[in-house]
Structure prediction request, 107 residues.
Amino acid sequence: MKPSARDYEFRVFWDPVDEEFGAQVIDIPTLTAFAPAAEDAVRDLRQVLKTALEMYAADGEAPPVPGSRTAATLGHIGGKVSSARKRLAARRNGLKGGRPRKAVEAR
Prediction:
């Protein structure tokens, strides 16, 4: 399956030297974008990534495979993953009053 721009994971960071937000594709670290707002940096990076993927296809090369299986999975199903096991765990945790807490040893 050919990866799309939604399959890749981004890292957003603050650059104190330029005083701008930066966004970087984790699997292709040379692809970066900078902007005054984090959202703008991500939007610009998404466009850069789409262009890069088009260039890989035009050259007949395979782009780097997305390293994050979670990002690749979530990108194709809209960001929400639900399964019978997750629903059962959520129901059990709800009956107990929320998420289970770690046991603390008495000292």
User: Anything to note?
Assistant: Helices lie at 38-59, 69-77, 84-95. Residues 75-79 have pLDDT under 50 and may be disordered.
